[in-house]
From TrEMBL, chain A:
Record organism: Meiothermus granaticius NBRC 107808
Entry-linked InterPro entries: Fe-S_Maturation_MIP18 (IPR052339), FSCA_dom_sf (IPR034904), MIP18-like (IPR002744), PaaD-like (IPR011883), Zn_ribbon_PaaD (IPR056572)
PaaD zinc beta ribbon domain: residues covered: 120-161
Domain MIP18 family-like: 11-80
Species classification: Bacteria, Thermotogati, Deinococcota, Deinococci, Thermales
Record-given protein name: Putative 1,2-phenylacetyl-CoA epoxidase, subunit D
TrEMBL record, chain B:
Organism whose genome encodes this protein: Meiothermus granaticius NBRC 107808
Matches recorded under InterPro entries: Aromatic_CoA_ox/epox (IPR052703), Ferritin-like (IPR012347), Ferritin-like_SF (IPR009078), PaaA_PaaC (IPR007814), PaaC (IPR011882)
Name of this protein: 1,2-phenylacetyl-CoA epoxidase, subunit C
Gene Ontology BP, a term: phenylacetate catabolic process
Name of the coding gene: paaC
Pfam families for this protein: PaaA_PaaC
Signal peptide limits: none
């Protein structure tokens, strides 16, 4: 008879972390946002490596606590480390999460490589799908978003900054 | 790292953090008072970013000497701060605030770009991270300088007055700290003198294109970050009041 593994595996920890919503955008979780970089489990202790989205993001504190809480619920001790390198990029947000952002009403971030193009691709209105939109303000309700207005349906909307 | 270089680096990290922290506070004074809602939000975002950057630099210092960032921010007196005087000046009108943010953002962009090549990995990593966020600031404040400079007679006059009040102070951003040459020699931080040429060229071009005249002579230029304007005392009295009210509090 094979005895059960004494501690939850790293896969089990990843699965638990996928249950943590982003505090500011609850339709996506912290794993698919690319915030959790690494999970290691050793002798009843999980070491989670996370990277901040924006340096001044007030949600970081909450995210860190949620990570610790989720790990402890599996019966493991938790250590959460923060790394700055490589710096977080919106390119790490999973394709599924980008689709969910759009359905939620937030234009998903464009590929970061786009920023160096002379004429970056237009931002699509998440409400009506029009590409005739205007950036009104680089800054929005949270550090990660900008404010746009759609020239077709005339509704304002938020778009994720590409960083 | 030699003990001398480490002491110089601790001083430099403190100065970098203090610039961000004090500017952040000045910007935050506009929250709820911005000229229009969108600008109120934008400046609150910028203030929040700068606060995050202050926290980043102080956490690098913490890794070297174990000091608690919150203690440094809220329990130091004015004489112990190492911010440049430009950032202490009262927020003034919208033109004053936008111009200061622009002059500082432009300086920061040059400094951070060069610092990504630091031989001390934590500085290089922090610079790369912060640089990504700062691009949005410069884009925003650069547009405001142009808008105010090319706007109405009144907006141009206010911006020109702001420039006359700030131009000398802004030069202090390029005065190295005592001992900073050790860090430059070891490739830990960029040399300010070289950055100043790029900064001067860029801001001169943009300010002139926005219809402004560079003040001659440039006005009062502070030289030491150990000296502060009287404004820093009242700023700290407000910024630190809550933390000092209950210094033993562990959670806010």
């Amino acid at each position: 008879m094979v005895s059960p593994a004494p501690w939850p595996s790293a896969e089990a920890v990843w699965a638990a972390l996928e249950g943590i919503p982003d505090p500011e955008i609850p339709v996506v979780n912290v794993v698919e946002m690319g915030i959790v970089r690494e999970v290691q489990v050793h002798e009843g202790r999980a070491t989670i490596t996370m990277t901040p989205t924006f340096s001044g993001c007030p949600a970081l504190h909450t995210i860190r606590e949620s990570l610790e809480h989720a790990v402890r619920k599996l019966g493991l001790e938790a250590e959460v480390r923060t790394v700055l390198s490589p710096p977080w990029s919106t390119d790490w947000i999973s394709p599924e999460a980008k689709q969910r952002l759009e359905r939620y009403g937030i234009a998903p971030p464009k590929p970061v490589g786009d920023l160096i193009q002379l004429e970056p691709s237009p931002t699509r209105c998440p409400r009506c799908g029009s590409l005739d939109t205007t950036l009104k303000n680089s800054f929005g309700s949270t550090l990660c978003k900008s404010i746009y207005v759609c020239n077709t349906c005339h509704e304002p909307f938020e778009g994720f900054k590409a960083v | 790292m030699s003990p001398k270089a480490q002491a110089a680096l601790i001083a430099k990290l403190t100065a970098l953090a203090d610039d961000e922290l004090i500017l952040s506070h000045r910007d935050s004074e506009w929250t709820g008072h911005g000229p229009i809602l969108e600008e109120d939000i934008a400046l609150a975002n910028i203030a929040q970013d700068e606060l995050g950057h202050a926290s980043t630099w102080l956490s690098l210092r913490q890794a070297l000497d174990g000091t608690d960032p919150d203690r440094l921010a809220f329990f130091r007196d004015a004489e112990e701060f190492r911010c440049a005087q430009l950032l202490e000046l009262p927020k003034g009108d919208w033109a004053f605030t936008m111009l200061r943010q622009y002059l500082f953002d432009r300086y920061e962009l040059h400094w951070l770009s060069a610092a990504t090549a630091s031989t001390y990995p934590p500085v290089a990593e922090a610079a790369a991270k912060i640089l990504r966020e700062e691009r949005f600031h410069l884009q925003h404040t650069q547009a405001w300088v142009e808008r105010l400079g090319q706007g109405t007679e009144e907006s141009n006059r206010r911006l020109q007055a702001a420039l006359e009040g700030q131009w000398g102070y802004a030069q202090q951003l390029f005065v190295p700290l005592p001992g900073e040459e050790i860090l430059v020699g070891e490739g830990i931080v960029p040399e300010l003198r070289r950055l100043k040429e790029d900064w001067l060229e860029n801001v001169t071009r943009h300010l002139q294109a926005s219809g402004l005249k560079l003040p001659l002579p440039p006005g009062y230029q502070p030289h030491s970050r150990e000296h502060h304007t009287e404004h820093l005392w009242s700023l700290l009295a407000e910024m630190q009041s809550v933390a000092r009210w209950d210094a033993e509090a562990r959670i806010w």
